[in-house]
Every structure is written in C-alpha cells, then in structure tokens.
Amino acid sequence: MPQAKSRRFAMDKTPQDRPTATDRRQFLGAATAMGAIAATAVHATAVGVSSASAQAPTGTASRAPAAGPVLTRTIGRTNESLPALGLGTFLTFDLLPGSNRDALREVTRKYIDAGVRVIDTSPLYGTGEVSVGGFLSAMGVTDQMFISNKIWSTGDYLADESHALASMEQSRVRLWRDKIDVLHCHSLVNVDAIVPLLRVWKREGKIRYVGASVHENDYHNILAGLIDKDLVDIIQVNYSIFNRHAEERVLRAASDKGVGVLTNMPLEKGRLHKIVEGRPLPDFARDIGAENWSQFFIKWAMGHPAVTTVLAATSNPDHAAENVGALRGPQPDQSMRQRMARRMESIPGFANLASMQWYPDKQSMYQGVIRRSQAALRQRMS
Predict the structure, then answer these.
(1) What does the angle CA 285 – CA 265 – CA 190 come to, to the nearest 5 degrees?
(2) What 3-state class would DSSP assign to 189?
(3) pLDDT by residue (tens digit) across 348-370?
(4) Measured between alpha carbons, how far is 51 from 315 in angstroms, rounded to an integer?
(5) Is 271 in contact with 254 (CB distance < 8 Å)?
(6) Under the phi-then-psi rule, with left for phi > 0, alpha for psi from -120 to 50, and beta for the rest, what region is 257?
(7) CA–CA–CA angle 336, 339, 345 (5° rounding)
C-alpha cells in the first residue's frame, strides 16, 4: 500500500495539472480548520450495462425527464446495479444555517423523480450532509438511496479510529441512515490507516463498501494502486471531457478489477458551460440524444466503459432538469466520444479551462459555511 505521507504531507504541493488555483483540497482544509451508456458490446461486457442562459440554449430546462428506461451499470465485484447518474453536493449544497433550502430540495426531488438514487456527500461539505439527510427523510426515500459518503480523519496516533468513528456516527445521524453504502477515504487522507479501518468496518457490518476518493490528477497513481491491490470496492475520481487523466491508470485498473467508479467534476464546476456560452450544440449531439450542453458533457463521461455513475452537482432546479436527461436515451460509443472531444478542443479557451475560477459568474451563489470559514481565516491572516 502507498505510504500515508504520500497524501497527508503533500498539502503544500503545487501540481502542474491542478484544475484551479484554489482547489477542493484548499476548500476542505480551510473549512475543517475553522470547525466548519449501453454504448458498445465491449462496454456492456465490461460493466454490465442494462436498461432498467448557456446551459440551456434550446430552452429545454423545464421539460419532464426523457422517456425510456434508466441507464444502469453493474459493479462487477459487488453485483450492485446503480443508475449512471448521481447527485453531487460539494459546495452547491452548502448553505448558511437558516437559509432558504427550497431550491436544493427541488434539485433533489428532480433527480429522484428521474430515477437517480446515488447521492454523494461528505461531513466536510458544510451543511450539505444535513440537507441531504433532511430532504431524503421528508421524501420517504432514505432507505431507497445509495449514499456515498466520506471520512477525513487522522486520529491522535496511527490507527486511532476514534476520530473516524465519531465522524461516521455523526454522518449516520445527519443522513438518518443505519448503514452508509460506500464510505470513502476522502482525498486519500491518512490512507494507510483509514482504508484498513474501512475494511474492518465492512466486515463488521458498519458499512457496505470500502471506497477512496480523489479530485486531483496528482493522486491517480496512488488510487490505482489501491485498486490493483484489491483494497477498495468503489472509487471516486475526477474525470471530464477536459480532464481525461484518469484514463491512463485509474479507469483501466478499475475495469480490470471490477471496481465501481463514481466520477466527479463532469461539468468542471461550471467552467465547461462558460467555454460554450452562446454556442449552439453541434448537430451530431442529436445522435446521442443530448438536448443541451449539460447532457453533452455528462453523456461523454458516461460513455467510458469503466464508469459506473457520473456525479453532477447543481443548486439550480432548471439545471437539474437538464442534467437528468442524460440518464436516458442513446449513449456515445468511443468513436462518438472522440468526435465530441475534438469539437471541444476546437473551441477557443477550452485548452485554458484549468486557469478559470470555479463557477464563473456564480461566486455569490455559494456563500455557505465553507466560504464563510475561509473568509474569516483570510481576515485573521490579513
């Protein structure tokens, strides 16, 4: 297993392929410190595919989910069948206590009504975990959902499980769940202690599956190493039409080992939509049933044979209605995915997407516990 220090003591590293100057690790670290498709026969064989504003240039946001069966994928080593689309909650679901949550409740409802049952959250996502638990409980669907959650814990000494155990118990209360479906070693923090602990918890029946999550290319090799050694059942990795680095090791390893793959950042935190702002969809998008750019980008990620579920986050109910359309209809094969990527590469600014700020023009929308903590820390440092 990779050494824990490979992740734990790399906090000041500045990778060349970092998605943005202020990445998710910095968000999470600051918040914590402050207390805060069936595309091809090969595809079907590999993952068990079965049938069971710039973002909306064509005005399809309010349409009902497309007709047809929900696209599902089966994780080889677990026989767990999951919808190919899930709801992510980082930053978008973080509101200050007492804030109006009607829009987030509606986002959740639209995803669930469309057939989504995978929701990813974390105790480090500000108030996101609380909202997810409250919404699902009020809708009466808590036990029908596949909950992906995380552990970010070091303990007072190596293999001290008290901090991790307290975090898990808090998550169970917030989510109103007796058992979490998959618990990830969040960002590979303290990986050498946490992954074995998760494996013990799985054996003891505390969780269903062992997971590990990353959102930076720098840690893909470590993640792939966990897969190679059969230490995880499901992983979460950053993957998009812009950032395809996971293909080099992680997705190949997951396919070989029958490990489930949840992918994050398919829309690159709103930056992909900024790149295509004012541009019509290419004519060939109709061949995969993409009615808007969100579906274009999500379906591209879904099209990889190793991908189980694409996690797409939003706080806008209209955008949620767009996203869920990707869960039905034709999916791109490898040839189409290459064509889609080439089209994006021809658009000015695409190559420089990594230098853009997350959620361009929407910074005021995401002012929850995480950003409040960051702002307070910056003020103390000034």
Answers:
(1) 155
(2) coil
(3) 999 999 999 999 988 778 889 99
(4) 28
(5) no
(6) alpha
(7) 145
